[in-house]
Predict the structure.
Amino acid sequence: MLMINVIWLVLMACGIIYAGINGRIEVVTTSAISAAKSAVELSINLIGVMCLWLGIMRIAELSGLIKVISYILNPIIGLLFPSVPKNHPAMGAIIMTISANMLGLGNAVTPLGIKAMQQLQTLNPKKDTATPAMCTLLALCTTGFTLVPATIIALRSAAGSVNPTEIVGPTLFVSLFATILVLIVDRLCRALFNR
């Protein structure tokens, strides 16, 4: 985190110094104010769309749709995480994490993923080393197979896109390809390093 702060500080300092050398320091002020205004407008627009999708996720959970998705995903998740017992709380947390990822709820995936990792840690015999199941979950969360990229659609809509949903097809293809590839690499790494 410190390194990121240092990088941002250097970038901002370079921009201010460059503007000062060229006698255009007022550009820094107007750009900062304009960017702050745009960020607030985008955040407000995004809040509405995210509330809609999180509400849909809650309705899906209360209506039992998440249980149906869990039932469908359970055999696949069992194959991907053979070391996790079927009725362990980690399995439910993993399914919720992957379901949120599939619905494109990037902001909701983070707390669910943390909860799944905490549950997986309870099964970990070496507390200072990640288990293969933890590595697989991290890989799946990183690639984020997405059926409905809700967050990206929300951002495109908030930014004034004429057709914010046109990225659904390419996103589905790319996220599926990335997920398959990362699972292959995950299995290869397990085979190579667990000798």
